[in-house]
Write a structure and sequence with these properties.
The chain is an alpha+beta fold and 94 residues long. It has one domain. The chain contains 3 helices and 4 strands, in the order H-H-E-E-E-H-E. Strands 1-4-2-3 form a 4-stranded antiparallel β-sheet, sandwiched between helices. Strand 2 and strand 3 form a beta hairpin. The N and C termini lie far apart (26 Å).
C-alpha cells in the first residue's frame, strides 16, 4: 500500500500540468509546500548526504502539510523500511 501512495504522491508533485510551466502553484498544494520549504521528492541534495531530513511534506488525510521530526521519522520508516503508518509522503525537507 505504501508504495502505491508514494507513486501517487510523486506523480502529483512532479508530473502534473503547471509544474515548470510558469503558472503559479496552488497555495497549500504539495508542489507549493515543496517549493516554500526547500524540499525534495527524488534524490536528496548533496548537502544532505549522511544526514536525516528533519521535516517532510505528508498527508494523513486529504490535506498535505509540512511536519516536524516526529512525523518525519514515521515518513522515513514508511518509505525506506516498509512500515505502514497510513501516510502519503510527498517529500523530505531540511
Amino acid at each position: 500500500m505504501y508504495a502505491a501512495a508514494i507513486a501517487v504522491a510523486l506523480a502529483q508533485v512532479g508530473s502534473g500540468p503547471g509544474v515548470g510551466s510558469g503558472r503559479p502553484l496552488a497555495p497549500g498544494s504539495p508542489a507549493a509546500l515543496i517549493a516554500q520549504h526547500d524540499c525534495w521528492s527524488a534524490k536528496a541534495p548533496g548537502d544532505m548526504t549522511g544526514r536525516l531530513p528533519s521535516h517532510a511534506i505528508i498527508a494523513t488525510g486529504a490535506t498535505p502539510r509540512y511536519v516536524d521530526s516526529g512525523l518525519t521519522g514515521k515518513a522515513l520508516d514508511q518509505v525506506f523500511e516498509g512500515e505502514d503508518h497510513g501516510l502519503v509522503v510527498y517529500a523530505f525537507c531540511r
